[in-house]
Design goal:
mainly beta; 2 helices; about 45% strand; three-stranded mixed β-sheet; about 5% helix
Length: about 190
Amino acid sequence: MTQGALRYLFNTPNSNWGKVEAGKEAYGVLSDCVYSGVVAIGNNIGCQLTSAWGINAGYEHYWTPAWHTSLYGAYYAVSYGKGTGGANANLCSAAGFGNTLAGSLAVAGAGCNNDWQTWGVGARTQWDVTKTFYLGVEVLYQNLHSAQTGTGSVVSPAGFASYAFGGATVNEANASNWMVSIRAHRDFLP
């Protein structure tokens, strides 16, 4: 569990999470703190720390000295808090899903919630052909759950008119991902 130090919880990736496919997007903002407003006009909120927690588990079973299977899983949850003028309200306003005011005056629009969770489970089976060479196959399922339900448009960065994220118009509550990997590994140094 952490507050304001998400990079310690998320070793990799240590940036925002996201997936865009067929005009739909799902994402999770990964920041240590949200600061907004202007001190001179008195609407600053200071540094609103982001809270997160996670758990990982794994198990490895040896069928024979050369064959073994690993099972693993993880779950992470990130929270920006709620309320007028808080971190969530300022992120929503900055993204166009709020009243577009900053600091203590920000109000999140209906359905705008930047809290998110991700989880995954996987398995890997490996054959240790020799002490320095092995073959393996791995299957991984991942899910990104974003509480966003609003609609909008992801703006492409300047100079990238055909950038992959341009054109997404619907926020997806759940985005899933499958990965299958086949690996051959050889050590050359002892």
